[in-house]
C-alpha cells in the first residue's frame, strides 16, 4: 500500500490550483482558508419583555432565608457538641453564603431558631 505525502504544493495541484511560488502568498492563502470570518451577531440575546410574578418572587425570598438557615444548621450540627462559637462563625461565613459580619445579624434576626449563650468557663459566646 502506497502512502501519499501531502505538501502544500501537492495539495494545490490536486485541487487544480496553479502552484504559488512565494511562501508568503502560500501561507496567506492557507491561513485564509483555515480561518472563519467574524460573526456580526453577539451571544447576548435581545432583551425580552417579561411579566413579573410577585407570588413567585415572595416565595423565592422566603426560600433564600430558609436555605441559609438550613446551611447554618448543617454547619452547627457537624461541630462537636452541636455548638459553635460566634467568632468561629465569622470565619466560616463564606461557606454558608454570608458576608463576613452578616452572621451575627442573622442570628439576632432569628432568636427563635438559634440559642446564643455564654460558655461558663471560657466566657465566649456560643450558638446552638
UniProtKB/TrEMBL annotation:
PANTHER family: PROTEIN ROOT PRIMORDIUM DEFECTIVE 1 (PTHR31476:SF9), PROTEIN WHAT'S THIS FACTOR 1 HOMOLOG, CHLOROPLASTIC (PTHR31476). This is PORR domain-containing protein. GO terms for molecular function: RNA binding. It comes from the Eukaryota. Residues 51-127 form the PORR domain. InterPro entries: PORR_domain, PORR_fam.
Amino acid at each position: 500500500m502506497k502512502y501519499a505525502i501531502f505538501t502544500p504544493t501537492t495539495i494545490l495541484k490536486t485541487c487544480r490550483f496553479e502552484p504559488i511560488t512565494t511562501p508568503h502568498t502560500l501561507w496567506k492563502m492557507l491561513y485564509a482558508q483555515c480561518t472563519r470570518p467574524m460573526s456580526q451577531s453577539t451571544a447576548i440575546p435581545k432583551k425580552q419583555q417579561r411579566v413579573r410574578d410577585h407570588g413567585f418572587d415572595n416565595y423565592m425570598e422566603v426560600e433564600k432565608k430558609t436555605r441559609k438557615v438550613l446551611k447554618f444548621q448543617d454547619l452547627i450540627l457537624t461541630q462537636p457538641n452541636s455548638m459553635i462559637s460566634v467568632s468561629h462563625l465569622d470565619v466560616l461565613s463564606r461557606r454558608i453564603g454570608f458576608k463576613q459580619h452578616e452572621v451575627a445579624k442573622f442570628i439576632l434576626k432569628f432568636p427563635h431558631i438559634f440559642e446564643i449563650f455564654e460558655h461558663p468557663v471560657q466566657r465566649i459566646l456560643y450558638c446552638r
